[in-house]
Amino acid sequence: MKKLTLTSGLIYFFLSFVIMTAMAETSQQDMLKMLDQLDQLDQLDQMEFDDAIDAGYRCADDENFACADQEIKKARPLVFDQDSKVRLNELIAYRNDQEKYHKEKQRLAAQRKLEARCASRCPIARQYSQCVAGRLDSWDCRDEEPSYNSGGSSGGTMAALSSALTQLNSQLQADLARQKADFNRQMQAIEAQRQAKERQKREQQAQQRRIQQQQQQAMANLEQQQAQARRQAEQRRQAEEARRKRDEERRLAAEKRRQEREARVLAQQRAKEEEARNKQIYLSKLTSGARLGARSCYGEKHVFATLPVIKPELVSCVNVNFSVQCSSTGPVVHRGVLRNHVNMNAGSCFGDTTQVPSSIACPAKQFVVRATSVEGC
Length: 377
Hints:
This protein is mainly alpha-helical. It is built from five helices and six strands, in the order H-H-H-H-H-E-E-E-E-E-E. It folds into two domains: 2-141 and 162-238, no CATH class; 290-376. It has helices at 2-61, 65-75, 82-121, 125-133, 154-289, and strands spanning 291-297, 300-306, 318-325, 332-341, 353-356, 368-376. The strands form two sheets. Strands 1-2-5 form a three-stranded antiparallel sheet, with no helix packed on it. It has a three-stranded antiparallel sheet with strand order 4-3-6. Helix 1 (2-61) runs antiparallel to helix 2 (65-75). The longest helix has 136 residues, at 154-289.
């Protein structure tokens, strides 16, 4: 019973170990799959972030600032590291600069349009200045009546008027040239800023491509590592499976040897029991078939026995236990043993006999001798 209990415990432990190992391998494979899925999600988020940044720059270049704001809003929750945060802030700054540039262009265009309208409708310098400054509407400009001296000539008046108009035109041309120069400087500064932003954008795109290449290379390396890890895990699983198989084969072989050994022992035990039982039956047959008697030999009383011949002879050496009575109903007066009885010259004084005490009251020819048992020597 103890052997069976120990074997059952070992089997239970082995099965538990196999199940736990299989669960651990399954959990490891599930973990690798989960990591792959998380990496893929991170890649998708990064790609979506990159697309939003590129679209934001395009919207800002097209002066569609609502579109740029929408792309910035889309990219904001997708920030994944410090570099992406810097890129988002740079896009926001670029969008704000482009809006300032757009508003400045609109302001300058409106200013040029106003100056042209004032120049066409306000020939008087004072009115033109007020019109350009926004203090006088161009429709309110009018020619002022010149004052003439009563003693002056019309030629002098016309000369003065021509000189005033020439001076006004020169002043207007100077103002226009100065404003144009200011506008050109502003446009050059804005263009330089735009070109700087373009260079920065190209550098960012190049950096982004390098990062994408690095990420792709990292993903390829990770996939190779994961594939190698899976191969190693499979090799370990196969090695463990082979080891478990060898252990199971050894266990089964040991169990078979134990069962064979127990079967041999049991067979030997049964054979011995069968042999002992057959010998006991053989001795019982000798006991029941024994014929005993007594005679006087040279003044001594001897008991002899004749045993039946039974084949095969299972017990070669026997002792015949007997009892002696003076009559069939009288008490037993002696108990003895015919040792190493071999059935030689039964009934003869020179045969296989044993002496009994001469003190037995009755003569030998009156003995009633019975075999009580036959035993092996």
